[in-house]
Design goal:
Blueprint lengths: L1 E6 L9 E7 L7 H9 L3 H8 L9 E4 L9 E8 L6 H17 L4 E4 L11 H15 L18 E6 L5 H26 L7 H14 L3 E5 L1 H6 L3 H7 L7 E7 L8 E6 L1 E5 L19 H15 L5 E11 L11 E3 L5 E3 L7 H12 L6 E6 L3 H7 L5 E5 L2 H14 L3 E3 L17 E2 L7 H10 L6 E5 L5 E2 L9 E2 L4 H9 L2
Parallel strand pairs: 1-6, 2-4, 2-5, 5-6, 9-11, 9-14, 10-11, 13-17, 14-18, 15-16
Antiparallel strand pairs: 3-4, 7-8, 8-11, 12-13, 15-18, 19-20
This protein binds ligand BES, manganese (II) ion (MN) and zinc ion.
């Protein structure tokens, strides 16, 4: 879909479909919706008066202008109540409108920026959110089928703005929104791919493409590369894997020592069977999403490249399957991570923290100002916060926490602080090693975080995305399957650093 910005009155648009909006409780529409209403001879206000059109969030009304306008149809999307209006409502409204346009086989769509009028949101942010909601609302995973079930495709989306003074802000917001949606799409695709396709090798290929397109430095470490660096924890998980493991490192502005360095680490378990501590077969297929953290980091690195973010950003994704195998690591094994610490294996299903341990140790070599890891780490996090609600956040630096919480509010990729008290260490004390890889059922989300802390020595935040990386419901711009959670959060965080 080609996206552009044009100055003008939306009622004069030559596109076949026009999208405007309405707040709940408005009886006489103003601005662009008012102008369209006038051009339609008052059809919109008539429907409001009749009670057929309410402006409630999630609603769309379709008007057929016949010869009154060049457009074939006008869509009025409900924005809900103006008091509680924010960027998330913009994204949802944009998704609702454009999905309806697609249902009606629209080819060329014109829309106004939602929220930049009487709602008074910053116009660039509203434009960005309008594009994010539109592009992500139309997202569809291209499944490999003989007969593709692809929906009708909209060819163009034009943002129309009457006020020339707002155009340049809208243009920059649109560019940012489009780039971010690109990164989210990549992350969603990787999670949605079957695990025999989104292998560690595939993850490395995707990273290589990002590196080539954006002049990033890339390292793809194989088993022997990891062995040279004493990454015993990563290699333990990879031992039973049939697919070759890849420890992937992307570096944006690799050689710039004048810029702050931020390291992003993503758990890249391309399929988590649990290993010898095998999971029940029911729903095991969902564990193709256990590389959601790595997908978010790769998606974010793509956006970092597209927007050429003025920071030194390092993306680290340790990728491997976790399989039961004659060669697999076992409960009771003692493993040495790359910082020398030994780990007693209690459960081979606590594999995410193993690969992250070596990822976090490796992150220190970049002398980072901050390290953020994203991981589908624990079922306990989902139990604590619920599905699709928020990611769990653990941090060793309060300023970093505040920045991430703020970015989560703006993007609606919410992160919720959870405790990282040293008291949790008791649960992972081992008789035979420095730590155990599982602290048991109680406080499972916190004991996983305190384990990870043993491998950090910098300002650090851990984000447990187990409950938000994969959705079984579709709503607004979220679809069943991979959500791409983390990409928008990380980019908002980096842009405000
Ligand atoms: N990948 C899972 C966690 C997970 C569960 C992600 C549900 C998404 C949805 C992780 O590797 C795992 O198996 N964790 C165990 C840890 C336990 C063995 C200490 C868990 O949560 O049960
Ligand atoms: Mn597991
Ligand atoms: Zn896992």
């Amino acid at each position: 879909m080609k996206i552009s910005v044009a100055q003008g009155s939306i009622q004069d648009s030559k596109d076949d479909t026009i999208i405007v909006n309405l707040f709940e409780g408005v009886t006489v529409p103003a601005g662009a919706t008012g102008a369209v209403d006038q051009a339609l001879g008052g059809a919109i206000s008539e429907l409001i008066a009749n009670g057929d059109l309410t402006g409630k969030s999630g609603t769309v009304s379709v008007f057929y202008p016949r010869e009154k306008l060049a457009a074939k149809r006008v869509l009025v999307v409900g924005l809900g109540k103006s008091e509680a209006f924010n960027l998330e409502n913009v994204r949802k409204a944009a998704a609702t409108g454009i999905k309806q346009a697609r249902e009606l086989n629209a080819v060329n769509v014109a829309t106004i920026v939602h929220g930049a009028g009487i709602a008074g949101l910053p116009v660039d942010e509203a434009a960005q959110a309008t594009i994010e909601g539109s592009v992500l609302g139309l997202y569809q995973y291209q499944a490999e089928k003989i007969k593709p079930n692809s929906k009708h495709k909209i060819e163009s989306l034009t943002i129309v703005e009457f006020d020339p003074a707002k155009l340049s802000l809208i243009e920059s917001g649109v560019r940012v929104g489009e780039s971010i949606a690109d990164g989210v799409t990549l992350a969603r695709d990787l999670v949605n791919m079957p695990p025999n396709v989104a292998t560690p090798t595939k993850m490395a290929k995707v990273a290589e493409k990002i590196a080539n397109e954006h002049q990033m430095k890339i390292t793809v470490g194989d088993r022997s590369w990891a062995a040279e660096r004493n990454m015993g924890a990563f290699l333990a998980v990879a031992k039973g894997a049939g697919e070759p493991p890849k420890f992937i490192v992307l570096e944006h502005n690799a050689n710039r020592d004048d810029l702050d360095t931020i390291v992003l680490v993503g758990k890249g378990i391309t399929f988590d069977t649990g290993g010898i501590s095998i999971k029940p077969s029911q729903n095991m297929g969902l564990m193709k999403s256990d590389m959601g953290g790595a997908a978010a980091v790769l998606g974010a690195m793509k956006v970092v490249g597209l927007l050429n973010i003025p920071l030194r950003v390092i993306g680290i994704t340790p990728c491997t399957e976790n399989m039961p195998d004659a060669n697999a690591y076992r409960p009771a094994d003692v493993i040495r991570a790359s910082n020398g610490k030994t780990i007693e294996i209690i459960s081979t299903d606590a594999e995410g923290r193993m690969v992250l341990a070596d990822g976090l140790v490796y992150a220190a070599s970049y002398s980072p100002r901050a390290v953020i890891d994203l991981a589908t780490l624990t079922g306990a996090c989902v139990v604590a916060l619920g599905k699709g609600m928020a990611a769990g956040l653990f941090n060793t630096d309060d300023a970093l926490r505040d920045k991430l919480v703020a970015a989560g509010k703006t993007t609606h990729e919410r992160v919720w602080p959870l405790p990282l008290w040293d008291d949790y260490l008791k649960a992972i004390e081992s008789d035979v090693a420095d730590v155990k890889n599982s602290g048991g059922r109680m406080g499972g989300v916190a004991t996983s975080a305190i384990f990870l802390k043993q491998f950090t020595d910098y300002a650090w935040a851990h984000i447990d995305i187990a409950g938000v990386a994969f959705s079984d419901k579709k709503q607004g711009y979220i679809h069943r399957g991979g959500t791409g959670f983390g990409v928008r959060l990380l980019i908002e965080f980096l842009r405000n650093w």
